[in-house]
Amino acid sequence: ATAEVTLRIVYQPQAVFRIRPVNRCSATIAGHTEAVLAVSFSPDGRCLASGSGDTTVRFWDLSTQTPLYTCKGHKNWVLCIAWSPDGKHLVSGSKSGELILWDPKTGNQLGAPLT
């Protein structure tokens, strides 16, 4: 028997942040071919995940500032990404409303996209 799990994902704006101007760029990492629309640091701070208008999710090694994986699976812009608290999974959401779960250690997609 297969058990089905249903997750409720609710979006609610919760705060307004005032961001002070940045006068200089401390580092850049080239890779995405379109605008970067979402970024998130792993819970341990060693990895950065980014989502882009090029429909990919990328994992970056921050100690070497090099790409680890380019993950393809979305059919539209990647607008949001979030790490699991233990850092073992990353979920990305696209403009078309689908969610994809990724394994940050391999860059592989876990299961089928959720719509």
Q: How many strands, what sense, and barrel or not for the largest sheet?
A: 4 strands, antiparallel
Low-confidence stretches: none
By secondary-structure content and strand pairing, the structural class works out as: mainly beta
Distance between the termini: 23 Å
By DSSP (H or I, 4+ residues per run), the number of helices equals 0
Quick check: average pLDDT?
Answer: 85
* H/E topology pattern: EEEEEEEE
What's the overall geometry? Answer: globular
Q: How many strand elements?
A: 8
CATH fold node name of the domain at 36-112: Thrombin, subunit H
Strand order of the largest sheet: 1-2-3-4
Classify the helix fraction into a percent range: under 10%
Instruction: Output the CATH class name of the domain at 36-112.
Output: Mainly Beta
What does this structure look like?
This protein is mainly beta and 115 residues long. It has a domain at 36-112: Thrombin, subunit H, CATH 2.40.10. The chain is 0% helix and 42% strand. The protein is built from no helices and eight strands. The protein has strands at residues 36-41, 47-52, 56-61, 66-72, 78-83, 90-94, 99-103, 108-114. The strands form two sheets. Strands 1-2-3-4 form a four-stranded antiparallel sheet, with no helix packed on it. A four-stranded antiparallel sheet has the order 5-6-7-8, with no helix packed on it. A hairpin with a 4-residue loop joins strand 7 and strand 8 (108-114). The relative contact order is 0.17.
